[in-house]
């Protein structure tokens, strides 16, 4: 046992002392902070303000109301261009070049059909921006409804008083308890969980691979296995690198919490423009990460990491160089990518059959289950089943990887075929 | 098993896909000896050593170390192993690396740190202790590898081609250190295909080729058995009394005479001492009497044959026989 401990300690100490650990650890929170703070600061500085023209060919001049409504939102500055219905085509053609010159972002065409049957057209460079279009659509709808009511003889005052926009606040219930977190925050949480698990399993798994390849190419392995059993060597390596991962995550977690806790003062430090942003931030619902979520994510990270690190270790034992390892690792990486490719499907229907199946299969569950858990209630039975399967797969994979490793690390030359691998595992 | 055998191999065999690397090999390394495992490249030396270390398991046969049942890995705290293919963690600091390698052999951290410092000092590498291994020259790296082999004060040193790739200076340092450790009571088993080195260092040898043992035993014994006995005799002028003795077929097979000088091949089983006795008794005045042992190299070439000897002259291949 002492020897394994020595191996673990070497892996941990050498890695933590390396330049790359320091760089990665510092860069991690900086990037994390940037992803949280930067977009808000940019919004605060008016970085995404749009300018559009409202081509108004309606007889009731509804364009005036649209411009007025958009002006209130402060995100879109609109100018009304009144035209006769016959001139719509010409006006549109003459406005298009201005979009090209970026003088305006686009223009919306309103005709009597807009009021009659609810049809309008927008042409612009930001036509793909869902936020902008939702805003515009909301304004048009409000104006059109008011105009139609007026035509039906409803008093405009009544219309104004009846009009109210509904803000739908979403709150997630998890495990029968109201969490105080919004639906968007839940989505955000699931997304972060996916990202962290995928990146960290990949990152640390590949480090195990490099470590094995290094020992093989430098021939250190010969001396090592003359005093330590190969299986213990592999186990010590996996645990050592995993400990580095946990250590780094602990640092990041702490930094992330500090950034979130002090986000308002942080943004304020960015200068006077930061003031508005700070106000915006203070009201923003930041996902409150439940303890259960952290526990589940860590459990699945560790099990998933063991599973993939063992496979990366076995792959490394079969090859002779770093370059060969990059080739040989592809099947393992692809396997790890499966839940990521299906992430959209999992998030869209966290309790759909795709998500359910992926969260049970051991090679996808380390990522799929925590993501599901973050976005929807998961029954205890499903969770237990997934964990049991995963633990069984980890034990089996580590055993097989150990057998391959034991033979592979001492052989140089041609990469083994499948049949030879089977013999190594049996032997 | 002889009571004082440190390593005993009993008919060990190792097959790899397609060929037998070691076949029914038995040998005994006595306590305190410097033992040479000799053979051309591809003879099975490294495979034998790896089986002794427990890195490979023999397909059949038995390896016994220190007269007990433990394998090389379990006894690694008593064994210093320098493999043929050797290297270091490039990014690790030299002192840390030595401490790590001592620790996996069971040496406590403070003791390992102290010993590493002493050895680095002794081999002139004290200034490099805090440097990364990759910063060291090849010669220095070899010294570090050697220190890693002896740091934990092993009773048994197993060195696989220790001199290959060493420059003359480092070769001398290594040889001196090995001799010193042997004087201190350590048993040393090393493999080489350079016979001159083995001849100077070894008390006992085992010559193998194509995975099979050709001869083993104490060096003097091997020489006596396989070289015949040659004696060079020079007499003072006018000593006719020597003639009948040199013509005695019970004692001498042939005598190559050059006037007062003769190269004599003794009959099998004849003792050079008795020839000397006869000459002295006959009143022959000798100016020179020398037992001319055949060199180990000659025995090696005679035993292994020209075919294998050619193989020995080719550079190291990628194979690990």
Describe this structure in words.
The complex is a heterodimer of chains A (427) and B (321). Chain A is an alpha/beta fold and 427 residues long. Chain A has two domains: 14-42 and 182-426, no CATH class; 48-162, Rossmann fold (3-Layer(aba) Sandwich). Chain A is 70% helix and 6% strand. Chain A is built from 20 helices and six strands. The longest helix of chain A has 35 residues, at 183-217. With 321 residues, chain B is α/β, with parallel strands linked by helices. Chain B folds into two domains: 5-223 and 297-313, 3-Layer(aba) Sandwich (Rossmann fold); 229-292, Alpha-Beta Plaits (2-Layer Sandwich), CATH 3.30.70. Chain B contains ten helices and 13 strands. Chain B has helices at 45-53, 94-103, 109-122, 138-150, 168-183, 195-201, 219-227, 242-246, 272-281, 296-313; strands at 5-16, 19-30, 34-38, 60-65, 79-82, 156-160, 187-192, 204-209, 212-218, 230-235, 252-258, 261-266, 286-292. Chain B has a six-stranded mixed beta sheet, with helices on both faces. In chain B, strands 11-12-10-13 form a four-stranded antiparallel beta sheet. A three-stranded antiparallel beta sheet of chain B has the order 2-1-4, with helices on one face. The longest helix of chain B is centred in the C-terminal third of the chain and has 18 residues, at 296-313. Classes of the chains: A alpha/beta (427), B alpha/beta (321). Chains A and B meet through α1, α8 and α9 of A and α2 of B.
Major sheet description of chain A: 4 strands, mixed
Q: Work out the helicity level of chain B.
A: 25-40%
Point out poorly predicted stretches of chain B. Answer: 309-321
Which architecture of the largest domain in chain B would the CATH scheme give at its second level? 3-Layer(aba) Sandwich
| Chain pair sharing the greatest interface | A-B, 24 and 30 residues
Cα radius of gyration of chain B in angstroms: 24 Å
